[in-house]
């Protein structure tokens, strides 16, 4: 059993398996179980039928391929989790920017601008009307966001 512990530590150092990650922990446990089963096979040479059956190259290839697939699946899951967490943090940053636009002082300033330039003037220039329409739409959009999305933030 002492030889297994040394080989296990060496294998951990060479593969750099982090202990904090749940996926790596599962993979390292399965690798440890594989090494432990091989150690038990080497010790129990009394039952030659079982040991020759488990020592066949096909069974070892299957065990190693299962271990490899577990490691690859763990890496893929970890990569996707990192991608999701990055996307979440970017969305949270964008929501914080929108939330800063919904500060009541900004809404008051927007109302002052709308009151200063009423849209009902008949003789106004077309660019001024375009600006006022865009300003009203921005105000409506901010009010909709404030009304619907304010509770979720």
Automatic annotation (TrEMBL):
InterPro entries: Ycf2_N (IPR056777). Residues 1-152 form the Ycf2 N-terminal domain. It holds the Pfam family Ycf2. The keyword Flavoprotein does not apply. GO terms for molecular function: ATP binding. Keywords: ATP-binding, Membrane, Nucleotide-binding, Plastid, Transmembrane, Transmembrane helix. GO terms for cellular component: plastid. The chain crosses the membrane at residues 62-84. Signal peptide: none annotated. It is found in: Plastid. Belongs to the Ycf2 family. Probable ATPase of unknown function. Its presence in a non-photosynthetic plant (Epifagus virginiana) and experiments in tobacco indicate that it has an essential function which is probably not related to photosynthesis. This is (rape) hypothetical protein. It comes from Brassica napus.
């Amino acid at each position: 059993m002492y030889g297994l512990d040394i080989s296990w530590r060496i294998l951990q150092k060479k593969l750099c398996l982090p202990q904090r990650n749940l996926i790596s922990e599962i993979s390292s446990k399965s690798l440890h179980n594989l090494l432990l089963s091989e150690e038990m096979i080497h010790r129990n040479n009394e039952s030659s039928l079982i040991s020759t059956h488990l020592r066949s190259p096909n069974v070892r290839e299957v065990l190693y391929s299962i271990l490899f697939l577990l490691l690859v699946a763990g890496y893929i899951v970890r990569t996707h989790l990192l991608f999701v967490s990055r996307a979440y943090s970017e969305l949270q940053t964008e929501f914080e920017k929108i939330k800063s636009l919904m500060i009541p002082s900004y809404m008051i300033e927007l109302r002052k601008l709308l009151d200063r330039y009423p849209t009902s003037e008949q003789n106004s220039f077309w660019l001024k009307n375009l600006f006022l329409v865009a300003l009203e739409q921005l105000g409506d959009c901010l009010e909709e966001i404030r009304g619907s999305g304010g509770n979720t933030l």
